Every structure is written in structure tokens, then in C-alpha cells.
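haha ok so turns out i had the wrong file open the whole time. this is the CORRECT one, sorry everyone. sequence first:
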Amino acid sequence: MAKQYETVIGLEVHVELATKTKIFCGCSTQFGGAPNTHTCPVCTGMPGSLPVLNKQVVEYALAVGLATNCQINQHCKFDRKNYFYPDNPQNYQISQLYLPICHDGGVEIETEKGKKTIGIHEIHMEEDAGKLIHDEWEDCSLVDFNRSGVPLIEIVSEPDMRSAEEVIAYLDKLRLIIQYLGASDCKLQEGSMRADVNLSVREAGAEKFGTRTEMKNLNSFKAIAHAIENERERQIDLLEAGEAVVQETRRWDDTKEYSYAMRSKEDAQDYRYFPDPDLTPVYISDEWIARVRAAQPELRTEKLQRYKEEFSIPEYDAGILTSSKRLADLFEEATAICKKPKKVSNWLMGETLRLLKENGQEPEDLRFSPENLAKLVNLADAGTVNNRVAKEVFEKIFTDDIDPEVYVEEHGLKTVNDEGALRSTVEAVIAANPQSVADYKGGKEKAIGFLVGQTMKAMKGKADPGAVNKMLKEILSR
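then structure:
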């Protein structure tokens, strides 16, 4: 009988914090500036420059720690992790090894197999390194220090996950908690959330962990799921062939769907950690913790429950609306204005998600205002515009955030409610289409659809299709 194997997975998740300036200097953290323009002597590691801790970094790390049920180290400090790499200007990284800010937490995930708590070993603050750009033409590497010194928190899980499904559920839970807190936008594609996967396999029922590998360069949930499946199979094949798994760092290539070895895995002693002599220890008072705790917003789990109870929204809809902070904010703010939660939800769930998908965008990219969405809901609800016109106007709101009331007025898009004008148009359409009239009277119900279409065309789309249908039937039944 073939051996059964169990996968054991732990994650190291790096999150870039949403501060306006870097962790130890006043340089901008904005994404996408020209190379080496967001730099100064501190973040380029010039001799004699001294770091000064950004208080907001501690505040965000505290907020994430409290939201993930961690214990807080009220006396924590920074350490130097020494290694040489061209994008690491000081030849050390300032991190936290001995006394990280948060430890012993956990979050609950839900998968098809039910609920499970994934333990969090620790959360520590650190600085990001710069970025190497490999120039194929010149056959050289260039370094951009804009990212150097950008504040990170590293969330280290316990090895509690057993499948790609659990890993994705855990990452999604973390992403939503951190986005709701406003601590980071957590965009995997921009690198503001990055996950390294530590994975080993062992025979089912075994107590001892197998030899683990660490996989880097994973910038989408899809890549993470594929990398886990691939590495699991690779390790099982080695064990089945009687070979040993080597403890190493591997790099995932998403285009080839293959991982290859980068270097053998170092241990903490290889980095010669020691307390950073330039930074004083951080003291976090009870009052500071209480203040951060009191400022915590409503997180997704509570919001989901409230939407179902307060707005009578189905669980599926509430799940999608709360799956993005931006969608949830738009929903709540537009509902507060027009007092029509189900209709606001329908516009967000239908047209908004459709246009996002067509444009390859994320909900965080939405730029239209809740005021204009609420105005459109009211216009459509009052019958001032018909459904077709409402969708056309919404597309303009989606791209240009136009005021729908002004746009409808300026473009003459109001539904024609003049019964006399509608009646004369309907009569003209009936007179012009004797065959369809005969078909309808002969029992072909579908023929009325053609007559409705012709009337709408004659009215330039500005009639209410329901009213047209009703009037046609009334005249034809005489």
C-alpha cells in the first residue's frame, strides 16, 4: 500500500506599512518614484547617519497584533541582522529577533473542512531592503534605494497549515484585517504584501517534522497555491526515491511553474544578531495599548454579521461586500444617503463587479463617490430613468464620477412619462407592423417583444419598457 503523506506549512508574511515616511528617516514611502529619489543619508547607509524610529510604525504593528489576538511585549527592542547584499546599504538590516513587539497570537480561518485556528508565533518590525534591477543589455545590476527603509512588519505563523486551501484562507484573513485597520493596502502585485512559504512533508501520523524548504518570489494567491502543490510533489518524489530533502531557500518561477534552489538555508547564528546600538528600547505603556485597542475599527467578521441583521442582506452578498474595505465603505456611505441598502448592494454586486472585471481592476481601485451612486439609485428607483439608461449613466459614474442628476438633465435621458406621446408612438408602431400584430393575435406571445423594441427605438430608449408593454397589450386586446 502506498504511503500517505501530510504537508506541514508555516508562513512568513511581510507587510509594507501605510506610513507616509520610512521607518528610520523622513523619506517618502510612495510607490513608483524615479529610482533613488526617495532617499537620504540614513536609508542609503551613509557612515555617521543615525536612525530615528517612526512612531506610526509601532502604532500599526500594535494594531495588527491586537487584531490577531497577540500578546504585546511592552519592552521591545531592535537588533541588527548582519549580511552583505548589494541592495542592503548598511550591510545589516534593522529587525527584531530577541524581543519582537507581538507574540503568541492566532486567527481563525474557515475552509470546506470547517473552522481552525492558525497560531501566530510572532510579529516583528523591520526595514525593507532596496531593489536590484538586472539590466540584460548592459549585463550589469543597478540598485534602487527607494524601497530601502520602507517599514515592514513580518508575521510569522506556527506550522499549523496542512494545505494550499488553508494557506489562502489564512492570507486572505490577514489581508482583510490589515486593510480594515488601514495599516497597509496589502497589494500582492505591488509587493506591499509578500509571503514566504516554509513547507515540509512527513508520513501521515508521524510526530517529527520533515526537512523544510522556504519558497520566495510569490506575488499572487494563484502562484502560492501552485508553488505549494509543486513543492509538495517534489519532496514526496525525493522521499519515495530514498533521497533526502535539503534544507534550502528556493525561488518560484511563475511562468515555468517550477522552483529552483537559491541557497542553503541559514540559521539565526549566521546573521550574528546583536542589539542595535543606535536605537533605544521601545516602551509601550498600558495607556498606549488601551488607546490603540479603543481605536480599532469594526473588522470584517463583525461587519458581515451586522449587514445580515441590520440591512437584511443575504449572506453571499454580505460576504462579497465585506471582502474589500473599499466596497464596504461605498455600500455603507451610499446606503446612509439613499436609505436603500438592497438596491445599493445590487449596483455594487452587479454592474460594479462587472466593470472591475472587464477593466482588470481591484475594488481598491474604485474612484467614484458614494453620493453619486446614491443619486443614481434614487433616479432609477423613482423611474426618472429606465434600467437601460441607468446602466449607461453608471458606466460614466464608474469612469468619471459624474453627477448623474446633472448628466441625465444635460443629455435629455429622463424617461418620457407623457402618456399621450407614448400612445401615439405605440399606435404608429402597430400600424407599421401588421405582420407582428397578426402573429400576436394568432397566439405568438413573443411577437409583443418585437413591438416593444420598435416602440423603445422610436422613443430613443427613453420610455419605461413596462409601461410600453402594458399599453401595447391594452390596445391590441381591443
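The mean pLDDT is 91.
again sry for the mixup
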